[in-house]
Amino acid sequence: MRNLKLIDKFIFILNSVFAFALLLSYLLPHTPPKTFPLLSVLSLGVPLLILSNFIFLVFWVLRFKRQLLLSLIVLALGYNYVFSWFQFNGDTDVIEGNDLNIMSYNVRMFNAYEWVKDDDIPEKILTFIADKDPDVLATQEHAIGYKGIPKIYPYEYIVLKEKASEFGSAIFSKYPIINKGSVNFPHDGNNNAIFVDIVKKEDTLRVFNVHFQSLNIKAGIDDLQKEDSKKLMGRIGYGFKLQQTQAEMMMEEVNNSPYKTIIIGDFNNTAFSYIYNEIKGSRFNDAFLEVGSGFGQTFNLNYFPLRIDFAMIEKSIHIDNFKVFPVKYSDHFPILVNLSL
């Protein structure tokens, strides 16, 4: 730093802070939130840390300064970690034959409280689903009693945690459901994981639809600025601890599955988190990482692309395609995965 101008020294100090924070975030997938809840909050800011270090790298490259090595080394050390945020995948090979399309969609109670100022949101959601025509549809925050789901699904499983709940989770299927169950999380709220065993031809699959604890993050930057930072961090850290317990409960059921298994739904957390790492493990592929492209943003957040809805596919199942549809009928975007059995 001896040969740097004063402004360059200041920039390099900032660069060092962001580089250290990104390096620290590499520990997140291996650090249980119950042990360090506040550290887990850092997972939500990882996209900004990646972007910042990339900008610093470009800055020093353009200045022909050796300080570029700092961000270059940190980004290189987390190569796979960094590219869980952005993918360059193109078209993939499609195996013709016994295919299955599965959609996950947090429908936000079909806009029951008019978060979106549009009276036609329920009809638009249903038209969208009918147009994409998935074989299996998994919904979170499904308004109980809402009878508008297309009649193409003769089989369904809808679960409320409690009788007083306004919404729950649901799975709709074109193929027979021969078994079903619910992992009821022991926490207040409507979050849970449900599963069904579906049969298509000679294949039986177990499909989990999960909705982990919400962190109640507002979509607008103005909303965040109004919140007390200590209370916000405390609430998010507590939410991550609950998510860890919920993920452990679900994975106990997943590990008992006698069939090939798919986990799909709203994780309310990122690909940089402990629960993501524990669920993916060595058994599942993240469909976005295998065949997705771009940022894969699934949450309608104003200030950076956030991917919190996932499709985890058993490695023995071929993934043909993965798409996110940026339709603003909910605060989540629906995802669709195409599989060959």
From TrEMBL:
Domain Endonuclease/exonuclease/phosphatase as annotated: residue spans: 103-332
Listed InterPro entries: Endo/exonu/phosph_ase_sf, Endo/exonuclease/phosphatase, TDP2-like
Keyword Metal-binding annotated: yes
Entry's Gene Ontology molecular function annotations: endonuclease activity
Key word DNA repair present: yes
Swiss-Prot/TrEMBL keywords: DNA damage, DNA repair, Endonuclease, Hydrolase, Magnesium, Membrane, Metal-binding, Nuclease, Transmembrane, Transmembrane helix
Known cofactor(s): Mg(2+); Mn(2+)
Membrane-spanning parts: 12-29, 41-62, 69-88
Protein name: Endonuclease/exonuclease/phosphatase family protein
Native source organism of the sequence: Gillisia lutea
